[in-house]
Amino acid sequence: MAATIPTLSTPIPNDPRVVAPPLPKPTTPPVLSLSKRGLLQAGIGVFLSSVGMVPADAARATRTEYYATVGEPLCDMSFVRSGLGYCDVAVGNGVPPPPGELINIHYTARFADGTVFDSSYKRGRPLTMRIGMGKVLPGLDQGILGGGGVPPMHVGGKRKLMIPPLLAYGPEPAGCFSGDCNIPANATLLYDILFVGIYK
């Protein structure tokens, strides 16, 4: 019987909670500039491998389109100073997440090449996680709770996140079992998030 592969945190299988290192001081890398046609020709994998180059000025955040979940429309993604990319497929009409509270989300997690490595849908139930307390990846905290140029999600909303390595696991591999690591070092991660509701 195959072992259950931990995805976002080695101590707790199938749970994206992890205490990540503090965010580094932002630098000023060059700005990416790709046309829609050029992006589609280059392919998502090539583009995502270059996403480390993000503008330092959040007001001038790069916007570009990328292919999302099969069957969903193109997503106009914005990048903020931290390097996080986000876009809303559907804006929720419920309340935003209260910092420090437990919330329920459905998610699908992918590598930069589009390969799915974890999904709450496969388990048939949403994930309960504590938001805004450093218990999850910094990219998930910022991408759901908001801040740093990212608006908060609202219950019922669906958002796509592109999480750079420094807001994910950084230079260390993760999801390791018997020396075999499911998430490589310096991995850019893609998340499809559905904000189901506040945990009660």
TrEMBL record:
Keywords noted in UniProt: Chloroplast, Disulfide bond, Isomerase, Plastid, Rotamase, Thylakoid, Transit peptide
Protein name listed in UniProt: peptidylprolyl isomerase
EC number: 5.2.1.8
Catalysed conversion reaction: [protein]-peptidylproline (omega=180) = [protein]-peptidylproline (omega=0)
Top enzyme class: isomerase
GO molecular function, one term: peptidyl-prolyl cis-trans isomerase activity
Domain of life: Eukaryota
Record carries keyword Transit peptide: yes
Species of the source: Iris pallida
